[in-house]
Each structure stands twice: as C-alpha cells, then as structure tokens.
User: Fold these one by one.
Assistant:
Number 1:
Amino acid sequence: METWVEKYRPKRLKDVVGNSSAVNTLVKWVEEWKRGKPEKKAILLYGPPGVGKTSVAYALANELGYDYIELNASDTRTYNIINRIVGSASTTSTLSQEAMGRKLIILDEVEGIHGKYDFGGLKALRNWIKKTEQPIILIANDPWALPREFRDLVLMVGFKKIPTRTIVKVLKEICMREGIKTSEKVLQIIATNANGDLRAAINDLQALAQGKETLEMYDIELLNLRDSQIKIFDVLIRILKTRYIGRALEAVQEAEEDPERILRWLVENVPKEYEKPEDLAKAFDYLSRADIFFGRIRRRQDWGLMRYAIDFMSAGVAISKKEKYSKFVKYGYPEIFVIYAKTKKLREQVDAIAEKIKEKLHCSKREAREIYFPLLEIVLQSEEGPKLAHELELTLEDIQFFVKDEKLSKEVYKKAKEIEKKNKKQLSIVEWSY
C-alpha cells in the first residue's frame, strides 16, 4: 500500500508548500551550476522533520530533468562506500543529454555520518565536495552536529516549520482526491497536533481515514492526539523508519511516554514494519534484552539500568534492519480494549460486547476483553467472521468496533443477518413438520 506522503509528494517546485525563501535560494544555487561552478559546490538543507527538505530536492531534479542519485547517510557511512558511490557520481557526467550533463546527488540524514565510527565517511564526503563536478544536496535535521569546518564548506539553507493553515489546505486537498468527507475542525486538530510537520500530519490523516468514507471527531478522539508531546505513532515512525542511532534514541528520550509502554507498542508493531526474517530476529533480540532490563529495574529499583533498556529498544531496533522500509504501515494498539475505552461511549460499548462474550463463552468480562477482543479483531475479518458475528449476536456497531474498514464491516453484518434468517427459516420448517 502506497503512503499518501509518497503519493502526494510534489512533482514541481510550484507544488512545494512553505519555505519559499529557502526554495528560491536553492533554485539560485542550481542556476549558478548552469553557468559554471558556484562558490559553494554543495548545499545543506536543514530544519525539523517533515518541512519539505527532501521533497524540494526531488521536485527540483524532476523539474530540471536531472538524473539524480539518492543516498542515506544512515545506510552508507563508511569511507569506502561514500568514496565509491558519491565519488564516481560527482566527477562523471550523466548519461542523459537532456539534463545537460548534470547529475544531482542527494544525501539525506547527513548528520548521521559524523561520529567516532564515521569519521572516514565525513572525510571522504568533504574531499569529494571540494572536487565535485556535479551539484550535491545534503539534508539534515540538526546541522550543528556537524563540524564547523564542514559547515563552512557548504551553503546552509534553513527550513522552518510549516504553518498550520498551510497544512490544513494540504490535508483538505488530499481528502478531496481520496473522496473522504470531513470537517475543517477535524483537519485543524490534525494540523495543529503535527506542530509544523507536514509529513506527520499526512501520516496521521492516512492512519485515521484509510478505508473510511467519512472522518469524524470521534475518530480523532481514538487517536488520542496531544499538542504538547510526541505522539506514540511518531515515536514508532522515528524508530522503525530510520537506521540513524541518534534519531531513534531521541524518539524515546523526547517522548513523554513511559518507556516500558513504548516497548509494548514496539513489540506489537515491529512485525508489521519489518518483513525480512533476519531483520525481525535481530529486532526481537534487542526488544527481549530491553524487557530483561525493565524486569531488573522493577525488582531492584535500579533506575540507572533504564539507559540500557532504552538503547536496546530504540537504537537496537532501528539498526536491526539492513535498509529502511518505505511502505505505509498502519500501526496497531497493543492493548485495544484499554485504548478504545477512553470515552464514555466506548466504555459502554466495550462493556456491552464483553457481556455478550461472557454469556456465550462462559467467561469473565475481563477474560472477554483481554483474551477474546484481540481474537475477534482478526476472526471477524476472515471468512468465519459472519458466522462468529451471528453466534455472538453482534450489532453493526459491535462489528465496526473491531473492523475499521466500513465496507467490510457492513458486509460481515449483512452476511451474519443472512445466516440468522436462514436458521430461522430452517427452524420454522422443523416446527411445521411436527
């Protein structure tokens, strides 16, 4: 499934929203390359996540018809790799004649190549910037993590957070194209919560609206949005979508969430993100180590061990994958009944469904919530779903509690009613025969 971030990524510079001054500076710098070589052969686009740094680089290459090579510093941080890939690309011309011999080199997460173990990579990059024949665009969240002599070598262009009103306009356009009905107030809440991060806002919108025809305030409440802290979904994205150790560590350290609770979210969602068996095995090895340290912390009350648990669950999980997965993943709740019971209406619905399960399966309500709720979410979306819905006498609202796809939930309910009607007819025939 394609992410909406990729689907609606701007193809032209005029489609890029916000930071017009920074975009103009980038365009002028490229114009200097057309006339020869600029004083600064590399440009560093820096600023917070989700403000369009990478998108503007893609749009620029597309608009000018340049070939481009994209590298991620988190994946290519050794002297030999940068020397081989960046070096050869920066000193040779493109095969595309339409691009007038220019090849754009884009290096993301460039702050990831600075450190004790990556000094060779930074040295190689600095050397190639000095003698490059091709424009190099560097991208970073925190440029001050780079040495001053490196910063002096490049043209630094800062990107600012995207205004909330601008984010709302983008979200409104996406909803229109996706055929989703919603209100300005709902989009305003999503945009405000994103805190200037357009990518996060689009990801939130997709997580909320995927499979729906209408997006209500009720759906926003389920996401449990908060203005003052990093949402748990952002923490997951920052760990699971990067291989940069520093970024993964910051995700947990900056989140106003209990680290042990974040661990439970990771255990739930790592299998949804990581596809390769070796990536999964390594990730769960680090998660199990983190869990061991949390156990020691509880037993010994030794909070000094917390840093080891955080290292394993954040940096360990991030570097477990050989490369980043670009697919869209709809992250799931580790404790569905707790999260869904945030409002009075939901508490009543949870209790009503648990009561039905209790009567039918002869268990306690607690067992119904903790054991059978997660199973229902899976089974109701399978071929056995209608039969189970009929046996438990679930209403359409009950089914929609577990099945978020509006079309599928209605289909399950319809088939369940057909089973009920068929059974009643058979019962009538039996009674008539007597």
Number 2:
Amino acid sequence: MDTREQIELKNYNNGVVETVDLRDGNGKEEQGLSASQQQRSNGLNLSLDKYINFLPTVAFSGNLQCSWEAVAVSFQAGLLNGGPTSLVYGTLLCWIGNLATAASIGEMASINPTVGAQYRWSGLYAPPGIMSPAFWGLITGWVTVFGWIAVVAQPAFLVGTIIQGLITLNVDSYVAQPWHGTMLTWAVLAVPVLCNVFARKVLNSIEIVGGITHTAFWIIWVVVLTTMARRSSSEYVFETTYSGAAFGGWENTAFDGVIHMSDEVRDAERKIPQSMVLSVLINGVMTFATVIVLLFCIGDPVAALTSPTGYPVIEILREATQSKGAATALMLMLSWNGIVALFSSLASISRLTWAFARDRGLPFPTFFGAVHPRLRIPHNALGLVVTLVVLLMLINIASLSALFAILSLANMALYGSYLLLVTFFFLHKLRGGPLVLGPFQLGKWGYAINVFSMVFLVFIIIWLPFPQFMPATAANMNYAGPIFGMVILLALVDWFFWGHKRFSVPTTESVFVEEIHE
C-alpha cells in the first residue's frame, strides 16, 4: 500500500482549512506549498505559534470576564433600577444563562476551534435559503468586532476613571475634569499595548498571575467588608425592590474571548470549551457572592450613590474601613485586575480583527491580515484596535453619556452574536445537518441547554436597551439600541455594496489533519 503524507494548511483566502497532498501518484513532491510561500511573500504568515497551555487558558478566560470587579464598580445601575432584589436574582439568572450559552458555544468550539469563531460558525451553520452563508458571516463579523472594541474600551476607561476617583478621595483640592479621565485612560492603555507588542511570550505568566490575584484580591475584599462594615438587614437585601425600567444582573459577555486565541492554544478542541465553561462557573460564584456582600455591607446607600468619586464602591470601602488609605489600596487591587483584563482583551480582539481581515471581512485585508515576522503578532490589527479605542476616549471630553452609550455596545453586540450563533447551531442539529462533534459534547442535554440559552439571550437583549434611569432624558438615555442598529446598518451597507464581492466563509466542516498514513 502506498504511503501518502498530508499536512494541514490554512487558506485564509476562502477561510477553509485544507488538507494538502504533498506527493503525486509517483511519490514525488508537488508544489503544494506554493500558496503558503505566496502568502508569506505578502506578509501573511500561515499561523501563529501554539504556546498557551490549559491553566493559562482558564486564567485568560476568567481574567477577561473581570466578573466581580465589573459588578463592584457598576452595581449602582441595578440598585437604582429594581433594587437589591433585582440585583440578587438577576445576577443568579445571568449566571445560569451565561453558563448555558458558554456550554453551547463551547460545543461548537470543540468541533472547530477557530479565531474567527462567531462569524465563521454563523456562515457554517446558517439555515439554507435565507440569504447566503457569507451574508451572515459578514454581518456577525462586523457586530463581533465592534462589540470587542467596546470590550477593550471598558476596562481602560474604568481603571482610568477609578484612578481619577481615588485622586478625588485623597486630594481635597482636586477638581475632576473629563479630559483628566481621558488622559488617565490613555496612560492605562499604554502598558498592556506595549506588553502585547513586545512581550507576547509573557502572556502565560501574566494570565496565571492575574488568575491568582483575581481570586486572592476577591478573598481580601470579602474578608474586609464582612468583618469591618456595618450590616444591612436581610429584608433589605432579599426583599427590597424599587421601580425602574432596567434589568439588574451580571450581564457578562466576553467569555468567547479565549476562542479568538485558538491558533495559539495547544489542544484547543478540548482546552478552549473546558476553560470557557469552568471560568463562567467560577466567576459566577464570585460575582454572586460579591453582590450579596456589597448589599449587606453597603452602609448608607444615599452616601454611596452620591459619592463625589463617581464610584459608590469607593465610598462603601471608605466607610467600612474608616480609612481613605485602605479604600485606596483595595481599589488599586481591583484596578490591577482590570489592567490584566485589558491585556487579555487586547490580545483577543487583535486576533479576531486579524482573522476577519484575512477572510476579507475588512477593507485592506493584506495590511490588517499581516503578522509581524519577528514579533509574531498581528501588529496592524492591534494598531487598528488601539487607534479606535484612543479616539473613542475623546468622546468623554464632550459627553460622558455618549461614551457610556458606545461602551454599552459591548454587551448588546456580543449577546446578539451569541444568539445568532446558538440559534443557527440548534437549527442545524434539528434538520439533521452534517455534524461531527468534538471531544466536548453536551450529550442528550444539548437541545435543552441550547433552548434555555436562546430564551435567556432574547430576554437579556430585550432589557439591555432600556434606560438605566427614569424618567429618561436626552442626557441619561440608553443609546445602546440605536448604536447597535447603526452597526447593523453599516454592515448591511458594506455587504450590498462591496462585501458580497470580496467576503466568503467556509460552508463545510473543516478537517484537521497533521499526518495520515494509509
């Protein structure tokens, strides 16, 4: 029997992973690598280095969600709309819903772990006869990329303005100005950007250290608050409701971030879905506990909500410890975790943008799809993301409400991409489409988990555009819905004028083969 050797090549012109035969019928080598060589001559390397192991993958996913930290600095919105009860039960519902969604997406990641994730899979599982697979892929790609740009902007802005709030706390003569927050945000952004460019190999170490501090600092917070703060009653925490239009809870996204690192994760078919589900499970426990602790230890709610620092949690910590220094130290712990999340989100979005460009989803695909030959990072894609985030922060100088509206796009866009993806995958299974499951499988519970995920996502997407404060005015209106609509409109314009000519996604299952002997 003749021996035929095959290797896996990634053809980024059409988004399909191909198995290329390197020998002809006479056993002589063919020019199977010519496409690869041509791509390298254009600066389009075939792949990134695989160097990320399981523990850093779990830590990466957990750090990226920045769960308890995000709830600590933003829980006031849920508190004002629905009250403590809404926060408690809303967080519990979101935890279960996010877990079902992560499991559903994890099953797809196990079948075909790909940097493109949402836009690749939406094209792969799109229902036949309803537009083309490329249409769904391009629309989903636009939504996902814009959502992830907002994800990057969030921790940068929060850490920058937390530092500004701490200056307000400690320096009585300081008068906060919007442009101060913008400058601090840029400064916070600089360190993770430099690390992503020049210290890519430290990602493993940073994620492990970040995972440790993510957990250790949470324990410190819980111990300090539960031992030093005066307690609210259980009636206040579990029975108090306020009238309001918004849904309070842990509207957590970004657990898909680790998928966008697929090309750099070893044994991605197993490790990526496992790390997604495990990180959502762990972060859910920490977040739910944080909500309970903050509500029991809130002290004077009016004083917290009217804090001149802009962050009620700073006042909660100051009152609990009776020390500005202690409150500052605790907030700096939280800020460090936010910087780690920023490092992770920059790594994830740069890979997603790079993959989308290589599949010709973005203009100038050769430029934005390039990998630096020495640094081995998608440097142009990273530069595009950083430039957009820097420009977004300028909006803060003119209107904080407008900036919040854009930042709120993160949850709206990513939850929307999850809903489309889970729905298409569910319908694909229902109609008996071709499917070879990977090592991570939901088994007989798969359909039920998919349905619960879809119901949860529809519910949460309905609530996300509602105003956070009533009565709604031009100044406090939630513009997430209109901005999300604008992104969809831009994607549609791109598709009908240019995208349908340049963009394509795989429409069949990819086969991953390193070496086959027959």
